Amino acid sequence: MKLGNVIYGDELVKHIAASYINYIDDVADYNAVNKELPTLFVGWRFMKENNQHIKQIKKADILDKTIKEKRLYWEFSFDENKSEHVNGVQDFVDAVPSLYYDSMFDYICIDPVFDKIKTFNDLTSKLPDVIDTCYVFKDQAIYIKQGNVIYGIDLNMFGFFGFDTTKIVDIITNKTFLSKTHLDSDGEMHKKMLRTFPNFHHLKRYMCDILEK
């Protein structure tokens, strides 16, 4: 599963490759890569010399490393600026999961106070009729995917307000399409995925999609 591109001409110095990144050193033309993925060009001159036919890159500002929000960025090569190169490449790679998933999905937190939920019927009225997939983290939270929307339910909070959280899980799993329910009762699924995405703060939120890939 690849979530982003890093396009470079010169060596990436002091960088450990991440499994979810396409590292591209044989193509310098932005039009030749998957533009749906967040992309970083490494090397100001390298990027500019090879992409003068692309208006956004032609107009890129050396004082602004964001060319298109959540989609296209640039960083210095090691020869151009040593410290910014090392930190900038790593910062982009760490940010890619958020850049990718936050642009792919809308997130809705179902809150018993804000949404004035007092009964199970109130809760089900906030949910889609059919659910693509869901992910239950221990007995603490449940995340639901339907189309390009992720719904989050804090089971601890609902329990605090007197709801039977086991019944909430049953209601949601009964709505789930073809029983695509991921029960992470001991948190091991999340722990395993953290090895791939150690800096992804919203990992639990998107586990229902990641586990389907």
Question: How does this structure look, described?
Answer:
This protein has two domains: 101 residues, no CATH class; 105 residues, no CATH class. Helices cover 34% and strands 22% of the residues. The protein is built from eight helices and ten strands. The strands form two sheets. It has a five-stranded mixed beta sheet with strand order 2-1-3-5-4, sandwiched between helices. The chain has a five-stranded mixed beta sheet with strand order 6-9-8-7-10, sandwiched between helices. Strand 8 and strand 9 form a beta hairpin. The N and C termini lie close together (7 Å). The mean pLDDT is 96.
Helix-strand layout with pairing:
Layout lengths: L3 E5 L12 E4 L14 E4 L1 H7 L4 H4 L7 E3 L3 E4 L6 H23 L1 E5 L9 H5 L8 E5 L3 E6 L2 E6 H6 L4 H11 L5 E4 L3 H9 L6 H8 L3
Q: Give the amount of beta strand, in percent.
A: 15-25%
Shape: elongated
Assembly state of the chains shown: single chain
Series of H and E elements: EEEHHEEHEHEEEHHEHH
**Structural class, from helix and strand content?**
alpha/beta
Report how far the terminal alpha carbons are from each other.
7 Å
Summed up, what is this model?
This protein is α/β, with parallel strands linked by helices. Helices cover 34% and strands 22% of the residues.
Q: What are its keywords?
A:
single chain, 213 residues, alpha/beta, five-stranded mixed sheet, 8 helices, elongated
